[in-house]
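Lecture notes, unit on protein representations.

Consider one protein chain, 129 amino acids long.
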Amino acid sequence: MFCQPGTTELPLVVALDTVEGIRPVLGLFEGVCTGAADGYARMLQKPAMVLLHLGPGLANGIANLHNARRAHSKVVTIVGEHSTWHRASDPPLAMDIESLAQTVSGWQRTCCSADLSGRIWQMQLGPRK
């Protein structure tokens, strides 16, 4: 998992670090992480995962996600979101993640719980080996 997390995504990074077969690799910029995930998926012919910080992080990595989609790379992208109680305040990094993600995604869902995220991973990619 190539990631450029913010404070909203750190609990997920910590949790995934305990899962066998997933190794978080931190990147300094979202473009590096999305490019690395695309390259990993292309070279190894297996799914890669990228974790980005909020909507602006998705915007920073979108060119590489476009390239990954055009190459049919299997890249699972997780984009953090503000807490529901915080979104009502229109925080500075808030944006319409779903609309932006649609432009580079073959499939997308918005999850409001960690349990749902895990089940979606299993439905799309099957059990990990």
